[in-house]
Design brief:
By secondary structure, the chain is an alpha+beta fold. It has helices at about 20-40, 70-75, 75-80, 90-105, 195-205, 210-215, 220-235, 240-245; strands spanning about 40-45, 50-55, 115-125, 125-140, 145-155, 160-165, 170-175, 180-185.
């Protein structure tokens, strides 16, 4: 693969150009830039009509040593240059599967969905596994995505993939199997109030003994809560649990 245009497929070709209001797009840029400043989130906006990046935040996590201006100039070429060659077919698969899934969602509900998946980026040869979430910002009247917001965070898995479609406000989601090429309905894990308390206090930096004292439980019980959290979130430690719970909106 050596052409960025392979990411742009008929399933999301933006045809109704007369509907596109780039004055409104400027408002999105201002809002997303404010979000980036306030939260230090690594975010960018894709323009599917111009086939480029409309905005890229200055957060260094996703930039691979480049300036935000340079990443914006590169657009989809950024993926070709900074994703391992062996994972580019995975990104194309995700692209096709994701847009095919959107075709089955009623147009009025499409802004309520987002896709999440993991892939590596390369920074001076060093591989970093990131989680990438994308949701529509603006649709044309026929339901095609014109602008999309992308959020990049650290991944909690050990490998690329983990392709999921989520409907905001629900605990159900769909997981894509790249072998069978099918989506399977699943349910998000649920943390009990006690598990949430342990995790929230862990975020604040308290030790297990201090957490036990604060919530009036034994240290052994707090340890059991932590272990249950690790199993539910499929993580190995507290740091991964915090990222996974945050990414999955469980707190």
């Amino acid at each position: 693969m050596n052409r960025p245009d392979e990411f742009f497929i008929p399933d999301n070709e933006v045809k109704l150009s007369g509907e596109l209001d780039y004055g409104r797009a400027d408002l999105y840029i201002s809002a997303v830039d404010a979000l980036s400043r306030a939260s230090c989130q690594s975010v960018y906006i894709i323009d599917y009509f111009k086939r480029d990046f409309l905005y890229v935040s200055p957060n260094r996590f996703f930039l691979c040593g480049l300036s935000q201006e340079r990443v914006r100039e590169l657009g989809y070429r950024f993926y070709l240059d900074h994703v391992p060659e062996g994972e580019l077919p995975l990104l194309l698969t995700i692209n096709r599967a994701g847009f095919a899934f959107y075709e089955g969602i009623p147009v009025k509900e499409r802004k309520e969905w987002y896709i999440s998946y993991d892939f590596h980026i390369l920074d001076n040869g060093r591989k970093t596994l990131v989680n990438h979430k994308m949701t529509p910002l603006e649709l044309t009247s026929d339901g095609r995505i014109w602008l999309a917001l992308c959020v990049v965070t650290a991944a909690t898995h050990a490998d690329a993939g983990h392709i999921e479609m989520h409907h905001a406000g629900t605990s159900d989601f769909y997981e894509y199997n790249v072998v069978s090429r099918k989506w399977k309905k699943k349910r998000m894990p649920v943390l009990t109030d006690g598990e949430k308390s342990v995790l929230m206090l862990s975020i604040q930096g308290y030790t297990m003994a201090e957490i036990a004292d604060k919530i009036c439980l034994s240290t052994d019980t707090v340890k059991k809560y932590r272990q249950r959290i690790f199993v539910k979130l499929n993580v190995r430690n507290v740091s991964e649990a915090i990222v996974a719970a945050t990414n999955s909106k469980l707190l």
